[in-house]
Amino acid sequence: MFIETEFKMNFGCYEFNFTASPVQIYMFVLTMFVAFISPFGGFLIAGLKRALRSKQRHRLHGGVIDRLDCILVVGFFMLMFVPRIVYNEKSYAQVASMIESLNPKARKMLLAKLQAHFNKSIL
Fold this sequence. Notes:
Layout: E1 5-11, E2 14-20, H1 22-37, H2 41-51, H3 62-86, H4 89-100, H5 104-122
Antiparallel strand pairs: 1-2
C-alpha cells in the first residue's frame, strides 16, 4: 500500500510519467471529491427536500445545515470508497503472502512483536 510504483499517463499526444504509492492516489481521489463534488451536496439535499415536500423545521441557520449536507455526501462517498477500493481482499492477500515469504525465525520475531504490542495495548 505504501510502495511507490511508476505510472505512465497518455492524454492524446501528451505523455508523462509519475511515481506514487496507492495511498497517495487514494488521497488524491478523496481530495478531488471533497473539493469538487461535496459542495453539490447542498443541492442534492435541497432537491430531495423539494421532492418530498419537506418544510424546514429546524432552528439552525441554512449555512450550518448546508455544511452538514456536504458532510453527509462526503461520508456516503467514504462509506463506499474505503471498503471497496482501499480495503479490498487483495490488500489482505498481499500481507498474508509477505508473512508466508518470511523465514521461520523472522515469523517468530514478528509473532513476538505482535504479541507484545497487543499485550501492551490490553493492559
